[in-house]
Write a structure and sequence with these properties.
heterodimer; A: 3 helices; B: 141 residues; alpha+beta; 3 helices; 17% helix; globular
């Protein structure tokens, strides 16, 4: 693993680390994010990699906001210092994308509805809250 | 849209033409390698000042890349029929290459939502030409 991120797994003082099942979910998310972030084939020339703070905050927000059943098939993309997490349901024609970073304390939330390949509704929430992330991910999968 | 005016552009490409885009990034295709992802059509204003590059053949699409992660294709009329004011034009300096113009920029706040939507529609219309890297020496075969 890249030396730049080797310390990310050691996060002793975060609130989520004190709760039993939360610890493993959090570490699982961190591991999945790191596996992507260190993959050089996912970057274009000179593209900025996400900072450690972005990785940690992304994992924290996902751990707090998203039930584990909605974490199984996420798509993870590093993108110019940010981390994009995408949920999609092809049958429903829905996609939700959360972009965490480069400012680690802000994430943007995009959701769209498609019908036969055409986007019929879409919205970007530039400074989203955890409750909105939870709602729109559940919407994506037809749970609201 | 942030495409440069007076750019290296020529006439419109006919709708029945197919154009090819190299996968510069492993995530242009989904994990199962059976669908094109939106990332392939996300235009960044800083990087793509004239538009998104494509070419008339696989060989030309990968010509200037040290490595690629496959190639995708899309018919020009599938781009223009979206009714989003998109154009596909030939480059003056290199007639083997084209530019998809008037795409909203994914890295501009005011255009981000539209950029995501258009990228989604283009990805849905595109197909995979090669899901594996195409060697430059074999591309012309």
């Amino acid at each position: 693993m890249s030396a730049a991120y080797s310390h990310v797994m050691c996060v002793p003082d975060r609130p989520t680390a004190t709760k039993g099942p939360g610890v493993f979910a959090y570490l699982d998310i961190i591991e999945r994010l790191l596996r992507v972030v260190v993959d050089d084939s996912l970057y274009e020339a000179n593209e900025q990699k996400p900072s450690t703070a972005v990785i940690v905050e992304t994992a924290t927000m996902l751990g707090r906001s998203i039930p584990s059943e909605y974490m199984r098939h996420i798509e993870i993309d590093p993108s110019s210092g940010a981390i994009d997490i995408t949920w999609r349901d092809r049958q429903l024609g829905r996609r939700v994308k959360a972009s965490f970073g480069p400012n680690p304390h802000i994430f943007a939330l995009y959701h769209e509805q498609k019908d036969r390949g055409r986007v019929t509704a879409h919205e970007l929430i530039p400074n989203a809250r955890n409750a909105e992330l939870n709602y729109w991910v559940r919407w994506c999968h037809g749970a609201v | 849209m942030c495409d440069a005016d007076g750019a290296d552009i020529n006439g419109l490409v006919p709708g029945d033409k197919i154009i090819y885009l190299a996968c510069r990034n492993k995530n242009y295709l989904n994990a199962a390698k059976d669908a094109v992802r939106e990332k392939a059509f996300e235009k960044k204003g800083l990087n793509h000042t004239d538009g998104l590059s494509a070419a008339f053949s696989v060989a030309e699409a990968i010509q200037y890349l040290d490595e690629n992660h496959g190639v995708i294709r899309i018919r020009v009329e599938d781009i223009t029929r979206l009714e989003r004011n998109l154009e596909v034009r030939v480059k003056i300096s290199d007639p083997a290459h084209v530019l998809i113009r008037n795409l909203p920029c994914i890295d501009r706040e005011a255009e981000k939502s539209d950029a995501n939507a258009v990228a989604g529609e283009l990805a849905a219309a595109a197909e995979i030409e090669s899901a594996v890297p195409v060697p430059r020496e074999k591309a012309g075969e």
